[in-house]
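New to this. Explain these tokens.
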Amino acid sequence: MAPVNPLTSPRQSGAERREAILDAACEEIAVSGFGGATTADIAKRAGISQPYVFRFFPSKKELSLAVVDRCVGQVLADWERVVPSSGETRLVALGRSYVEALPNRRTQLLVQLQAYAAAGDPEMAEAMRHHLARIFRYIVLQARRDGAADPYAEAAMFLSRGFL
């Protein structure tokens, strides 16, 4: 994503500006990591001043956690729209859709990997535990809907073989 030119871009609402900051932060963090991405670089990419970033995110940590929420949460949002094909189980459909979407998820996956690398930070580690638990619970629910004898084992297998 190229930096936004504030002179040629239309005015945005607060919600749109927040999303633009998150877009820019995702791109910067994917490339530079949570430690290497600066709020100055994120602001530049979003086409705003650095202090304006802090109007939406009081600290870089809050921005970083919002980026993780967005990127990992997008996996679940995408999965909720998946409809199994004829004869396909829900877990097979989730796996298929995940693999098919990989080329378009480069930034999202890099952010996720950067979050694992930053998990030495207690708040980042807690955020990743929370999101992985959400994903695991969702997969268990889908395995139950598929009629799995042991939905927890099915979910663990799905995560170990496909998702991770």
Summary: Residues 122-145 form the longest helix (24 residues). The two ends are 26 Å apart (CA to CA). The chain is about 75% helix and 0% strand. The chain has one domain: 14-163.
